[in-house]
Design brief:
mainly alpha; two-stranded parallel ribbon; 2 strands; 56% helix
């Protein structure tokens, strides 16, 4: 799941909300939920798909980051 940190790496209000949501998912479904830094994914998605809304591309970029960083 994307973690929307501020550009300087500090917690944003949205990051705190994302962390609470991730905790809810973990508790409700008893499954791990990984949080991935999503800074600049929307910008990169718009660069890759300038005519689209970019959400699906941003989600793919977040998933790709998780896949390449997972142990």
């Amino acid at each position: 799941m994307g973690l929307p940190l501020n550009m300087d790496g500090t917690q944003s209000e949205m990051a705190e909300r994302a962390q609470r949501f991730a905790a809810t998912l973990r508790n409700r479904h008893a499954q791990p939920v990984e949080l991935i830094d999503e800074r600049l994914t929307t910008r990169e998605a718009k660069r890759l798909q300038p005519d689209g809304d970019g959400h699906s591309v941003a989600a793919a970029l977040i998933a790709e980051t998780w896949l390449t960083e997972a142990p």
